[in-house]
Every structure is written in C-alpha cells, then in structure tokens.
Write a structure and sequence with these properties.
Number of strands: 4
Radius of gyration: 25 Å
CATH topology of the largest domain: Alpha-lytic protease prodomain-like
CATH architecture of the largest domain: Up-down Bundle
Strand content: 5-15%
CATH superfamily of the largest domain: Cation efflux protein transmembrane domain
Number of domains: 2
Strand order of the largest sheet: 1-4-3-2
Oligomer: single chain
Amino acid sequence: MQAYDLSQWSHDHVFDEGSQAAERGTRAVMWITAAMMVIEIVAGWWFNSMALLADGWHMSSHAVAIGLSAFAYAAARRYAKDARFAFGTWKIEVLGGFASAIFLLVVAAMMVFGSIERLFSPQPIHYLEAIIVAAAGLVVNVVCAVILGKAHDHRHADDAHHHGHAHHHDLNLKSAYVHVIADAATSVLAIVALAGGWIYGWSWLDPAMGIVGAALVATWAKNLIVETGKVLLDREMDHPVVEEIREAVESGAEADGTRITDLHVWRVGKRSYSCALSVVTRDTALTPERIREQLARHEEIVHATIEINHCA
C-alpha cells in the first residue's frame, strides 16, 4: 500500500489582479449602496411609501451582504499565506455569502409583515416625491451593476489568462452582483407600484409590490443558501470532476483490473478540488506516480491522496 500527495499544496486564493479588482469594486459598491439605503429608508418613512421603505430595507440587506463580500476579500487576502488554513482561505468568502443569505430571509420577513400591515391600515402616500427617490435608487443600482460587471470581466479575463479557461465563478463577486441586480428589480417594482397608485388611485398596489419584493428577496436568499451550503458541506460528489477522476484512473482497466474502491472529492477553491482515493489493482507496476500523471490532465485537481492496494 502506498500513499502519494499529488502536489505540494499552494493556497488557491492567491490575491491576483482579478481579485484586487473585485475587492475594489465590492468596496465601492458597498459605500454607494449604504448611502442610497439611508436616503430611501428616510424618504419612504417621510413620504409614507411601503414600497419605497421595502426597497430601502432591501437595499440595507444588500449593503450588509456586499459589505460581507468586501470583508471576505480583505480577510482572504490577509490570511492567504497563513499555514493554519490547510486549503487556503476561499471558504471565508463562501461563509460570508451564507451569512448574508440568512440575513436576507430576516429582511424578507420584515418586508412581508410591514406590507400586510399597510394593506389593512392604508396611509396617504406622497407619490411624486417617492417616485423620484425610487428612480434615483434604480440609477444607483445600475451604476453599481456596471462597477461589478467590470470587476467580473476583469476577473474572467484574469482567470482565462492564468488558467487557460474562465468557466469557474467567483461566488463572492457573483453574490454581490446578484444582490445589486435583485435590488434594481425591487426598485422597478416600487416605481410601478407608486405610479399605479398615483395615476389610478390603487393605494393597495404599493404594499402589494412590497410583498412581491419580499418574495424576490426570499427566493434569492434560498438560492444563495443552497449554493453556498453545497460548498460548506462538501456536497460535490455529483460534480462532473468525480467521473473525470474515475475515468482517468480506470482507463484501460480491462487489462489490469484497476478499480477505485473509495473516492472522496471536495472543493477547496473557486476552481480547485481535492480528492482522496483508494485503488485496487492486479497491475504490480502501478504506482502513485502513474496515477498522478493520469490525473494531471485535469488541472482543477490540485491536491490528491492516493492509496494503492495490489491483489493477486
């Protein structure tokens, strides 16, 4: 029986130019979002618009979530070379996304409660002023989306340059970007609700759109929890890379009867996987080095522990 470490592990989260651009973008968007959040909440309260208040509180959740993204980048950069993190610091970003998703669910519940209260106890709304503020919020969301979009393009190009591909996603940057897009959608809902109330006198439309906005937030939160939870719980055995590992090791197995009897695969970075596998074979010449050469075709496998058992 032999064990072999595929490569001397080097942390995946090297803070390259793409990561730096992503950190700068998320930090800028965090401050812009926080400023607009304060304006919308104050205006929603002053003009008595539940849709505007809902959009403001929704934006507050995004300010916190994007702040977590910026903090995650900073923490990952700070501890990138800390040997105590066996597989690097990438999961700091994922943990930040998971925390922001939990916070989003709380905000969605608050939005539903406030909107239902306004449905049963309608209050007069200053429609024109509220529409102006909501439109300003939408403009801010578009600006933030452009900033993060440029950071995403930079990250995409950087990955393609250094790794020859760019099909892996930066979950932290993606979470910030989707937050901004979702907030833009709720801004549109607020504008539609206020316009409908102003033109047709449908005062019920404002809190109704607040509920719709809450449903959007809850849906996004659920998707984010599933996506980040999958990484945090190492639920990766349905990923295509698992079958790629099996195929690489068992190729030509008809001749030597080589079979993987135990295989564990988990993600350790945005584009990196680790695996531990046990092999049973009749090929007395099979060595961990040969398996290493077979796995080397898949560059996303950055760390492997290989056990070989020879049988008669």
